[in-house]
């Protein structure tokens, strides 16, 4: 039962949640590939947003965005756990970003998010790669596409993150103790000056490191532990991802509003990938967050939320409805 799943999100804003039977929708009977996607929808406004999270992170990582947007009447916010993480199933791997995009499309179909120019798509990191594949498949449904801290991919040897990022990912994969795992994660995702500064608006006067440690500890506490198969299979999806320049141009021309966002100090997806995306997505807007790391939606939540609201508005204006 979906009610049995613990959540970080506010139940007061939740309008529906559950498991989407991906395998049944696709009419595939192979039990090794059988899986469902866990999802939550918050709010019931006419502007529908689907958020697609990155490598080995559950939908709970969207907390700053769901908390903000779900309280604004015009939005319906959809978040879900990708295959291989959180409350979703873990089919046999390795995974691909195209297959994970097909999962997301099946979820949209299941929930009735099928009308032309009816959804805003937001993807970060691996979620941005999945979003590219999704956008190539159903551009006619999309009003706006926001690609954050992501890449078009290419040859597998070019898809590896910078050494600091790759080394941290491998170390964390085999560490179970949160007290050892979280410090590695924080130094990977955030800029070193910011993480040790006093947190803005924290009544306890803590540093960002203390606030974020507590936040990640809470997420790990209530999230179902990820299997090694799930972690490695998602990593394979990132390493094998590739959207060609021709497909990028098609996406950019087919969607009313495209925005590419990055931090300027990213240890997982180098900012030069944003430059490449822009080169082949001429119509796209580029937003660079200064002194910001990979987890820009946590490090700069107000700025990111404001950017998203603006992008949604501009996309809707371009559709003219």
TrEMBL record:
Residues 49-301 form the AB hydrolase-1 domain. Coiled coil: none annotated. It comes from the Eukaryota. Signal peptide: none annotated. Keywords: Hydrolase. GO terms for molecular function: hydrolase activity. This is Alpha/Beta hydrolase protein. It comes from Lentinula boryana.
């Amino acid at each position: 039962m979906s009610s049995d799943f613990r959540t970080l999100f506010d139940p007061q804003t939740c309008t529906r949640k559950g498991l989407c039977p991906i395998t049944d929708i696709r009419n595939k009977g192979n039990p090794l590939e059988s899986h469902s996607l866990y999802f939550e929808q918050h709010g019931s406004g006419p502007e529908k947003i689907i958020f697609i999270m990155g490598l080995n992170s559950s939908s709970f990582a969207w907390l700053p965005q769901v908390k903000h947007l779900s309280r604004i009447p015009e939005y319906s916010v959809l978040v879900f756990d990708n295959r291989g993480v959180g409350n979703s199933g873990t089919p046999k791997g390795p995974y691909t970003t195209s297959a994970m995009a097909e999962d997301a499309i099946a979820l949209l179909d299941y929930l009735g998010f099928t009308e032309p120019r009816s959804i805003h798509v937001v993807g970060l990191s691996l979620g941005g790669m999945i979003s590219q594949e999704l956008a190539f498949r159903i551009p006619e449904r999309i009003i706006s596409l926001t690609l954050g801290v992501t890449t078009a991919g290419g040859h597998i040897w070019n898809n590896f993150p910078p050494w600091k990022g790759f080394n941290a990912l491998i170390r964390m994969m085999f560490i179970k103790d949160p007290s050892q795992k979280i410090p590695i994660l924080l130094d990977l995702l955030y800029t070193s000056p910011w993480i040790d500064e006093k947190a803005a608006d924290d009544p306890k006067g803590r540093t960002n490191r203390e606030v974020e440690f507590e936040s990640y500890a809470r997420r790990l506490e209530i999230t179902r532990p990820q299997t090694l198969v799930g972690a490695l299979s998602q990593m394979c999806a990132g390493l094998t991802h590739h959207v060609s320049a021709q497909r990028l141009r098609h996406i950019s021309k087919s969607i009313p509003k495209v925005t590419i966002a990055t931090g300027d100090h990213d240890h997982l997806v180098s900012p030069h990938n944003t430059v490449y995306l822009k080169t082949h997505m001429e119509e796209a807007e580029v937003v660079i967050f200064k002194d910001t790391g990979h987890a820009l939606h946590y490090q700069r939540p107000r700025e990111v939320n404001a950017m998203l609201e603006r992008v949604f508005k501009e996309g809707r204006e371009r559709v003219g409805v």
